[in-house]
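Quick log. Single chain, no ligands specified.
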Amino acid sequence: MCEERYRLVNEYAASAAILSRAAQKLRGRHGEEFSQARTEFGAARIECNIAKESLLRHETDHDGCSGPQRHRAEARAACG
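-> predicted structure:
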């Protein structure tokens, strides 16, 4: 794994963790609290998708840098 892929994997993992925490905040919220949590979730999802696409683009552009197919499929599915 090259240094850039390592950085992108870490960035993607961090953004997926933030997305997970944002999704958990939606539980049991109503009214304005729910609206705020949903806004945070939407922003986290966008950031996660950006990180995912950056990783996948790097794997495509940097020949031989991609991991096993299984990991690439997991990356595609994690952010939704």
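Residues 2 and 65 are 7 Å apart (CA to CA).
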